[in-house]
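Checklist before submission:
- one chain only
- standard amino acids only
- sequence pasted in full

Submission:
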Amino acid sequence: MILDDIRFIPQSIPFKKRYQTASHSCLTRDSIIIQVQSGDYLGYGEAAPLAGYSPETMENCMNVLNGIQQQLAGQTIGAGPFNHLPPKTIKSPAAVFGMETAIIDLISKVQQIPFATYLNPQYSPTVPVNFLYTGYPPKQYGKYTVKLKIGIK
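Returned file contents:
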């Protein structure tokens, strides 16, 4: 399939109140929506570098995406093992993730299969729900994963 078009849509989603950690705060969550097109099919991904947690910036991410766009627009991509991105894109993991997601979304739509099937044909269509631990062993209730949250104010 040929990548006819690749577009980037920057977005900024405001938080209701300031997000604050010990070392960082922000009022918005910024990201770049990636849209790839082949014929009548559209695939979507999102690149969202997280300021304060990664050396990546939105500007760096957009620069890497623009480079990927120049290399992939008009190119034929296959549905086999994913190796469509140039090696130098590792400088922006957010850009790589967003572009890979968009291309896999496009491929799965063209093949008319769920995104999860493309990644793993034996994927589980259900996800175990969480459980409020009340002192009894989790396995007693059929739960096998424990997530522990600890915080200090």
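Reviewer check: The mean pLDDT is 83.
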